[in-house]
C-alpha cells in the first residue's frame, strides 16, 4: 500500500555490526520504490528512488544495482511506495533549515514517520560514505571513525529520506536521515549538510503503518541488542 | 498471515496516559485471534483468545466484549493469528520458571517475538488489574500505584502472552507479558505469578513480522514520547 513503511531489521542490529546477512534486493524492492539502507558488510550507502537501487561507495563511485538478478543482500533497509501527499517549493541554507521547513509542512506528525524527497539544483551537498567492515561484526561506531566525506557544489540531484520518531530510536534512526544522488548518478552518499540553490521541489508523505521485518538468521538471533528500560518494567513487571 | 504480530500503538504512549482514543475492537480482531491490550482510559486488562475479547476489570468482574457491535476502542493492543508451531507439556513453580522453560523451548529467538499460551489447572495465579484513569492522560505509573491484586488457587484457565525483545522496550513490553482468564471466564488479569498444578499444556510460536500501526489522532500526535539515544545519533548524525 502507498506510504506504508517496510522496515527490514533495526538500527540496533547495524550498530552491533550485524552485516553478513539480510534481505535480497529483489525482495526488498517488492516493498517500495523509495528508501535508504546499507549493503552487505556496510559497504557504502544505499539509495532507492523510482524503484532503482544504487550503491554509493566510499571511493566515490556509484553502482547501479540490478536488483532482479542479484542474490546479494541488505542487512538494513527502509523503503516505501512513495506517493507524496504534499509537494511544494522549498529553500534552505543548511540541513537544519530543511528540517525546520518539514516540521512546518507536517504539523502533528512527530510520533509518526515521514517519507520525503527533494529534487533540484543544490549549491552545496556534503556527504559521507561508510567504508565497509574490515572484519566480521565490526561495529558501526568503529566504521564511523574512517568514513569518507565529499562535498559537491552546484549539483543537480535528489535527496531521499525519512523522518523517524524520537521514541523509535534504535529501531530506526530518530530524526531526519537522508541520502543524496546526483541526476547523473555519479555522486552521492549519506547527507551531512545540504544547501538549495534557490527553490527546489519538496515532496513528502506521513507514514503511520510500519511493517517491521526482523531477520531470522543466526547472525541476527545471536546478537546482543539491548535497551535500558527500567521505567516500563516497574509498571508492567 | 499466521504468527505475524499486529501491534496497535506503543507502550511509551500508554505510559504517557494516552487512553482516550484507539482502534475499534471490531477492526482489532480482524488482525488476530490471540492477544493482549487495554481499554479506553486503561479500564482493566484485555485478553483475546480464540477470537474472543474479554475485559478484566479492577472490581474482579469479567466482561465478554461484543466486538462486532462495539464502537469502543483499545488505545493499545497486540494480537496475532496464533498457530502454534510447538506444543508440549510444561511444569512450573513460578513465573520465572515458565519463562526459563520458554527460553529452552525457543532457542535463538531473543531478538524476535514469541506468542504463547498455557492451558490447564493452576495451583496458583496472582494477577493485578488496572483501575482506569481518574483524569485524562493520567500516566500509567500513577495508575500502577492503585492496582488491584487477586490470587486464585486451584483454577482452570489459560495464560495468553507475548515475549518481546529487550531492545524493543517502549514499543512493546520487553520480556514476558501475560494475562490470565479462567475457563469459567469469571476470573483473570495481568499475571504477576503463576504455578502449574502438575503438567499443563504449553503452545507457542516465533513471530518475526510485526505490523506496527501508529495512531493518527491528535491525542497521540501531541503526546511527548521520548527515548534517550545519544549513541546512535553519534554515528548517524
From TrEMBL, chains A, B:
Pathway: Polyol metabolism; (R,R)-butane-2,3-diol biosynthesis; (R,R)-butane-2,3-diol from pyruvate: step 2/3. GO terms for biological process: acetoin biosynthetic process. InterPro entries: Acetolactate_a_deCO2ase. Transmembrane segments: none annotated. It comes from the Eukaryota. It holds the Pfam family AAL_decarboxy. Its EC number is 4.1.1.5. It catalyses: (2S)-2-acetolactate + H(+) = (R)-acetoin + CO2. Keywords: Acetoin biosynthesis, Decarboxylase, Lyase. Belongs to the alpha-acetolactate decarboxylase family. This is Alpha-acetolactate decarboxylase.
Amino acid at each position: 500500500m502507498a506510504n506504508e513503511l517496510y522496515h527490514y531489521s533495526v538500527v540496533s542490529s547495524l550498530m552491533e555490526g550485524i552485516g553478513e546477512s539480510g534481505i535480497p534486493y529483489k525482495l526488498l524492492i517488492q516493498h517500495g520504490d523509495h528508501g535508504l539502507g546499507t549493503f552487505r558488510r556496510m559497504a557504502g550507502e544505499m539509495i532507492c528512488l523510482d524503484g532503482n537501487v544504487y550503491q554509493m561507495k566510499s571511493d566515490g563511485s556509484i553502482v547501479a544495482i540490478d536488483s532482479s538478478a542479484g542474490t546479494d543482500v541488505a542487512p538494513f533497509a527502509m523503503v516505501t511506495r512513495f506517493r507524496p501527499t504534499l509537494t511544494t517549493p522549498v529553500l534552505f541554507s543548511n540541513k537544519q533549515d530543511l528540517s525546520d521547513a518539514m516540521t512546518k509542512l507536517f504539523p502533528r506528525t512527530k510520533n509518526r514517520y515521514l517519507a520525503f524527497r527533494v529534487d533540484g539544483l543544490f549549491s552545496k551537498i556534503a556527504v559521507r560514505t561508510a567504508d565497509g567492515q574490515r572484519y566480521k561484526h565490526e561495529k558501526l561506531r568503529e566504521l564511523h571513525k574512517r568514513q569518507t566525506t565529499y562535498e559537491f557544489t552546484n549539483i543537480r540531484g535528489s535527496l531521499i529520506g525519512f523522518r523517524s520518531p524520537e521514541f523509535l530510536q534504535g529501531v530506526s534512526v530518530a530524526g531526519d536521515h537522508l541520502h543524496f544522488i546526483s541526476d547523473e548518478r555519479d555522486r552521492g552518499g549519506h547527507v551531512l549538510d545540504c544547501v538549495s540553490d534557490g527553490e527546489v521541489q519538496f515532496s513528502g508523505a506521513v507514514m503511520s503503518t510500519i511493517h517491521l521485518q526482523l531477520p531470522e538468521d543466526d547472525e541476527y538471533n545471536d546478537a546482543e541488542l539491548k535497551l535500558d528500560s527500567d521505567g516500563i518494567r516497574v509498571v508492567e513487571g
